[in-house]
Design goal:
With 189 residues, this protein is mainly alpha-helical. The chain has six helices and two strands. α1 crosses α2 and α1 runs antiparallel to α4. The radius of gyration is 19 Å and the shape is globular.
């Protein structure tokens, strides 16, 4: 049920990466923001919680990225010391996690499902895992989190599939094809 974003490059993972780039951290930025944020004060800076009050299930973190950019333009000293960077990472992470968790829980309640699942690169974020677990326990949802070793970047997964299709000279899928969740991804030679 937990999804990255409705608007392509406005997803949570992309926001982590862009914020990391703004403060000079390596790509991919999510793991670095997670690592540094774990040592910071999540209340140090007040960043917006995009679309949190919108009644839909959409996520977009474009406004958060912009807010961080303008914040850093006004406060460049924040990234001049380790404490400032850790607090910034923790504060941005808190904003992303709050939106993801609250909107996911709200959607699950509305739909009436007994369980919430989460996978993908952002699901490796320790604060997200912790907060989602706490919210699910409080709301009596079963939480099924993919093991972090299976939470790879979606683009990488798509690229691997494309490589397999090219290697095995498998033609393009018809635009009229039905969804097949049991479709084999490995071809026998």
């Amino acid at each position: 049920m937990l999804a990255g974003g409705q608007f392509g490059n406005d997803a949570a993972g992309e926001c982590f990466d862009k914020v990391a780039k703004l403060i000079g951290l390596p790509y991919p930025g999510g793991p670095e923001v997670d690592r540094l944020g774990a040592e910071g004060n999540a209340s140090a800076f007040d960043f917006p919680r995009p679309m949190l009050r919108d009644p839909n299930d959409d996520f977009s973190f474009a406004g958060l990225k912009t807010s961080v950019r303008y914040f850093l333009e006004k406060h460049p000293e924040v990234i001049q010391d380790g404490k400032g960077i850790r607090d910034l990472c923790a504060s941005v992470q808190a904003a992303i996690v709050e939106v993801l968790v609250r909107k996911t829980i709200r959607a699950a309640r509305r739909v009436g499902v007994p369980a919430i699942t989460a996978s993908g690169g952002v699901t490796c974020n320790r604060a997200l895992r912790r907060e989602l677990e706490a919210a699910c326990q409080k709301q009596k949802f079963t939480l099924l989190l993919a093991d972090p070793k299976y939470c790879t970047d979606n683009a990488a997964m798509i690229a691997i599939l494309a490589e397999l299709k090219l290697t095995h000279q498998y033609g393009p899928t018809s635009l009229d094809a039905e969804v097949d969740p049991g479709l084999a991804l490995v071809w026998k030679e």
